[in-house]
Amino acid sequence: MSYLVNGLYIVAFALFILGLSGLTGPKTAVRGNWIAAAGMGVAVVATLIKIGDTAPVNWVLVVTGLALGTVLGVVPAKRTRMTAMPQLVALFNGVGGGTVALIAWSEFIETDGFSHLGADRSPAVLLAGSLFAAVVGSVSFWGSLVAFLKLQELLGKGLERGLVSSARAFQVLNVLLVLVILAACGHIGVGAGDGGGSSAWWIVLVLIASGLAGLFVVLPIGGADMPVVISLLNALTGLSAAAAGLALDNTAMIVAGMIVGASGAILTNLMAVAMNRSIPAIVFGSFGAATTAGGEGGPQGVVKATSASDAAIRMAYAAQVVVVPGYGLAVAQAQHAVKDMAALLEAKGVEVKYAIHPVAGRMPGHMNVLLAEADVEYDAMKEMDDINDEFSRTDVTLVIGANDVTNPSARTDSSSPIYGMPILNVDQSRSVIVLKRSMSSGYAGIENPLFFADRTSMLFGDAKKSVNEVIEELKAL
């Protein structure tokens, strides 16, 4: 039976890797997800066979858990709009971390404080793996819940600004919590070593202190850093799952957790580099303190409004148009209208490209997913490093709901909270048209001088409605 289980695990791991490779592009992402999901199904079957071969299995409980998990996973995923996908990702990631923490808790109870182990289980591995899983899983769970609340904007602007401004106090609390966690884990380790075990309250203390640490780390981090935080929490969840796999001697959890942890860590690093920030600076430096600015200082100039007719004329007679999508495009669900507008422009001989900032939107790859949903060609989506040199040669740049990623203060104003963050060089275009509902600041909460620039004009209103009006004007030309 062990040969069958190991064979199924190998198949599952191959499917994991093949599925992950499919996520490198929008055209293969759906297939990649299905392949990886099939791999997870194989791993679940292999694990159940392994457990059933060594001990009786309560199949009613297993089937009930599988059914409940399927409903809780499929229904929200089906009903969640694309604009809320970052929140769903944060929530699902948190559930994974919470599950790992509960596994560590159950292992503590089952082994009487890690003091009663079978001959086939290493006490050191069980102890280290379980405690690591308990701490990191709990941090990931509660941190992800805070990320969900922030992305869903349930905390309120005033409360969030207050939290960001209290970053120093949270850092002091986190230092104290780390000391508590280390002391509690040390006590559990001593108890496991002398064979007497520890009181169940010690593992509860570890979980509570770790949960508070997760809350206190993420609470003062503002919106500008949230995509990086989501990616980092995802990596932590993967590592905690791998640690739990070591404790349980479950190969599937080890491999799957390491794949998630490694890929999440790589993505986090790439995004941090794209923002010209170090990961410790993001976690402990509260780059999101930009949310305290709130557009202070008042208007920086005169805003020039434009019309759909004027925008259509300028783009129709341009050689090149660059579309810069942001979260406002996601909110308005304007991606299909933008694709139709681009088709009309291309029919008139205009070259249309899409400039994608690594942290545009609310999660990694948010804009790529939206545009791919509208069948925008992947080759037309240009990453920041590939498109920035072209803005000076671009006749019209159409900014749709993007704010912070186009803010020239990141280059020119050393006092700005986002100073040093690489941005799209939209202000270097010959003409800029910005589609926004109002003059409200972006997610980082600071004023954008681009909106007052001489070359910029504002087309106010819902992005989808505005683009559709431009489409009608283009048809009439």
TrEMBL record:
Catalytic activity: NAD(+) + NADPH + H(+)(in) = NADH + NADP(+) + H(+)(out)
Protein name: NAD(P) transhydrogenase subunit beta
Residue ranges of every copy of the NADP transhydrogenase beta-like domain listed in the record: 8-472
Assigned protein family: Belongs to the PNT beta subunit family.
Principal location class: membrane
EC number in record: 7.1.1.1
Highest rank taxon of the organism: Bacteria
One example GO MF annotation: oxidoreductase activity
Transmembrane segments: 6-25, 32-51, 57-76, 88-105, 125-151, 172-193, 199-221, 228-248, 254-274
Stated role: The transhydrogenation between NADH and NADP is coupled to respiration and ATP hydrolysis and functions as a proton pump across the membrane.
Alphabetical UniProt keywords: Cell inner membrane, Cell membrane, Membrane, NAD, NADP, Oxidoreductase, Translocase, Transmembrane, Transmembrane helix
Membrane topology type: Multi-pass membrane protein
Gene Ontology terms: cellular component: plasma membrane
Compartment annotation: Cell inner membrane
